[in-house]
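Changelog note: in this version the structure field was regenerated for every chain. One regenerated record is shown below for reference.
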Amino acid sequence: MKIAVSADHRGRVFAEQIGQMLEQLGHEVLQWAPPEGESCDYPDKAAIVGRAVAGGDADCGVLVCGTGIGMSIAANKIRGVRAALVHDELTAGLAKSHNNANVLCLSGDLLGERKVSAIVEKWLNTEFEGGRHQRRIDKIAEIERGELPG
């Protein structure tokens, strides 16, 4: 699988860790992170990953900023992106199984190294359930097209 990974300056360390872990698991990683000690704006990184996922250059993406909130807001502005901010394995699994999240957003300030690895693995190894959840994903796409669901 080809996975796009990026972070702002507050998530850089975890993004590098995630990239290495994904490569060890056999995935191809597209990575954009600021150099050590250099500040950057999270919307720029969210746009790069979001566009890679929405455009088909990556199968999915992972974004890390201080809280994960800014990344999730920015990434979700891109049509076709379903970015989910998660804090544990439960929400990671549900983000994929119910919401078919194609971008995972994480907090670089609130999560530890082992927790981040467990969350990413859970998300990657969870399948979208489809069924009634697909109907809801279709409604999200309607909203993206400017249509009101229902």
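Spot check on this record: The chain has one domain: 2-144. The mean pLDDT is 94.
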